[in-house]
Write a structure and sequence with these properties.
The chain is mainly α. It has ten helices and no strands. It starts with 10 loop residues before the first helix and ends with a helix.
């Protein structure tokens, strides 16, 4: 057991994280089956055509809104939520960490600030749960989800949107904004999958994002210095898996970005219907690789929850065995 094994979240947060991930994955699958209908024609067909996919996309959009509203209420009405909100707010230490990171990159500092390190040694008391980078990721995702939700509601009815703004161009601009913002988030999610699925300390999945901290012991022997990362061993499959996963992530990000420029008529599409980009075999393969990375993320999320279930079963078995031994001793 090392400090790296400490749970990150409460049970409610781990469940919310999993539900949000699954909802966002299906929003990506349905949204980009429409946007990249040339490259992802098989996905569009598999889900019943454009009409069915659009209905599913709206349904998962409603699910996203419900999750966001639920989380906002929890952040306001519960002690844990308010405490987590305070912990995630930027601090002077985060600003110092950012400045020291810049100095470190320029060669003017010998090491990174503790607020910027999560896996580079030290103890859990010295290094915060969230570095300034982690806090930035949370705020970026929150901003993207907010803007995607608002723009998604605005373009729910494209004809109604045109009537409201009186011009077709304004309506198309909202459609394109929603799609391109989704592309930005899609690229971030793909990198997030690679970062947490292929980290050498956690490969193949960061289980502490799925197992609540109440189920993971926080005590460690006093004779162990640092986080204990030096006692970990790399999985024999990590190098090849990380190289393959990294290549797929880069190819997927570049392909999705390129396809979004062609398929939406960047910066404003000529039609309200997206798609119709160039028929290019390499681009088609690249976009499908990006979708494969998303599918991998969904599989890892399911796997993480299966690990949590198995962990709970093992803990229950151990508690039952301990109680039997205690009764036998009495």
């Amino acid at each position: 057991m090392t400090n790296l094994d400490h749970g990150k979240f409460t049970r409610m947060t781990t469940v919310f994280h999993s539900l949000l991930a699954m909802d966002v994955f299906f929003l990506f699958f349905t949204g980009y089956a429409i946007m990249f209908n040339d490259e992802l024609w098989w996905m569009l067909t598999l889900m019943g055509g454009s009409g069915s996919v659009a209905a599913l996309h709206r349904a998962f959009g409603v699910g996203l809104l419900a999750l966001v509203v639920f989380w906002m209420l929890m952040m306001v009405t519960t002690d844990t939520g308010r405490s987590n909100f305070r912990e995630i707010m930027p601090t002077p230490g985060d600003a110092k960490a950012f400045v020291q990171d810049i100095q470190f990159v320029l060669g003017n500092a010998e090491e990174r600030h503790p607020n910027a390190r999560q896996f580079a040694g030290g103890t859990a008391d010295e290094i915060p749960l969230l570095s300034y980078v982690g806090k930035g990721v949370v705020f970026i995702f929150a901003a993207e989800l907010t803007l995607l939700s608002i723009s998604g509601l605005l373009i729910w009815s494209k004809t109604g949107l045109m009537q409201y703004f009186a011009t077709r161009t304004a309506a198309m601009a909202f459609v394109v904004f929603h799609g391109l913002l989704g592309v930005v988030m899609l690229m971030g999610v793909m990198f997030h999958i690679f970062e947490h699925g292929f980290h050498p300390a956690f490969f193949p999945v960061e289980t502490k994002a799925f197992i609540p901290r109440s189920m993971i012991p926080e005590e460690h022997s006093d004779d162990v210095e640092g986080t204990g990362i030096q006692h970990l061993e790399l999985s024999p499959n990590w190098a090849s898996a990380s190289n393959l996963g990294g290549a797929a992530t880069v190819i997927g990000i570049v392909s999705v970005l390129t396809a979004s420029i062609f398929d939406t008529g960047y910066p404003v599409s000529l039609e309200l219907l997206v798609g119709g980009g160039p028929t290019n075999l390499l681009l088609t393969v690249g976009v499908n690789i990006g979708v494969l990375v998303l599918f991998l993320g969904m599989v890892l999320s399911v796997y993480g929850n299966l690990v949590r279930i198995r962990w709970e079963q093992r803990m229950a078995e151990e508690e039952e065995a301990d109680s039997v031994e205690a009764e036998a001793a009495d």
